[in-house]
Amino acid sequence: MKTLGEIAQLLQGELKGPPEFNVSGIQALTAAGPDEISFAVGSRYGEEVEKSMAGALILPKDWPYLLDRPSILVKDPYLAYALIASAFLDKPFSALGVSPKAHLGSNCEIDRNVSIYPGVFIGDRARIGPYVTFHPGVYVGNDVCIEDETTLYPNVVVYEGCRLGKRVAVHAGTVIGSDGFGYVRRGESHVKIPQIGIVVIEDDVEIGANVTIDRAALGETRIGRGTKIDNLVQVGHNVSIGADSLLVAFVGIAGSTRIGKGVVLGGQVGVGGHIELGDRVMVGAQSGVTKSLAAGEVVTGSPAMPHKLFLRVGSALKRLPEVVKQVRDLKGRIDRLEDKLLGEGNGKDA
Predict the structure, then answer these.
(1) Active-site residue 237, yes or no?
(2) What's the CATH number where 244 sits?
(3) In terms of pTM, does the model score above 0.90?
């Protein structure tokens, strides 16, 4: 339970109503009850707001309608929603300790304030910080280091030697540190290149379900601080991703690519190997990036091109059948004109 005054202070918003009003949680406009708060991102939701049973509202500063219940006016309602939802979900860490049904290797350093569930396997010489949670089925290899407040959800695999920072969340089925895809031809066969590097995940990274992040051939594959990775993403060996980047589902990044800070890769983007994407690059969904991009570029398409050019190309493609018909008509007219001119020429010769 939180008061409206506490919520307004958290959001740094303008309170319109009694600060002592108690709020039990946050819900959608259609589901919220009299003791809950909800939000609207713009005036187009005016009718839904009017019908909502929510006891309090978060609204944009320029809300044009009459306020008929306690409200908090904010600059960014989406951000406000995220902050409030996190505040209501936030619960003190409860250390369950290490389950006797978990396997612990030799010479491990594990803080006493952890929750390690049954079915977890931890290899030799692992170092586990405080307030860490490992759910059932987690595998942590030899010499892995995992820092404070990190959570590994069921069936996450962290191969030997990899390092995870503070407040990292790794969702179910993700594999960190599997071998990079490296082979060299010998005649008609393929010889594996040993992958002896590691993966480093910096602080405040969140990794979705069923992601694979390959270990480096030499050195490290690195995911920068605050980066968020969606489900079903593939990161190749020796890739480096800068801080606060976003990778949406089905992104694939080939080996030894360098990605800057604040980069956004839309769903199903493919990025070729051994190239560089500068800071704040944005790549539209289903694009294929085959060459390096300068900082701030916005590209779409396969092969990727400047987004404005892509829109022009798309517009032209829609008119392509009509253009083809026009060209055929013009060709027919030209052919008939040539036949006529040739006929007149032959007549004069006669």
Answers:
(1) yes
(2) 2.160.10.10
(3) no
